[in-house]
Amino acid sequence: MALEIIPKITDPRGEGWPQPARKEIKIIGGMAFMSPTTMLKLTEYSHCSPTGTYEGKMWCGVVRGNRFLYWFDVSPEYKNQCRIYYRRIIKGNRKWIISKD
């Protein structure tokens, strides 16, 4: 589930950041599923990354016609820094399917 991959926002700066609840995103194997309504809760940043770097912050973006889900988590190499993680989003009939590339 997304609860195990996308960390919870614990930084106070995240209180005002608009994003879906982690429980609205289901991750099975290398893919995740969300409804179109959940997808619309993600802020889009297609040409840059959002300011305010903290664990659990999610957003989406479009790169070369492909939509991606992004989030910040602690870097495995540098414990005091965040790293951007992502999954490619593929639109399904009733759900958005996010696959790990």
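^ that was protein a. below is b, sequence first then the tokens
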Amino acid sequence: MNQREINTFTVQEYHRGEWSDLIIKDKDGKRPKTVKISNEHAKLLSHDAEVQAKENKRTSMFRYVLKGKKVKEKVEKKTESKGDIKKAREDYKKVFGKKAFGGWSIEQLEEKIKNK
């Protein structure tokens, strides 16, 4: 049986464009959330979260950083101008006859219009 190396990782959450330690409250007070998982598992989960954060998706917004290692950087998001998103929503309304869901990005709206 193949042994995987297990380490302690600090869980970080993506909030308002920044990664920061996830703080939990227990009987001893507040402290950063830590987990013991394999390096491979942590790498896989963290990669997925960072990709989704860059693409403005909101599913898995947690990453795992080796305990004691400080990693805090701002993620550059794709920015959409208000005029562009407004035009895409107007186009959607013309094609489908109803308002578009407010959480859809320009790319999602254009995809739905294209596939009509």
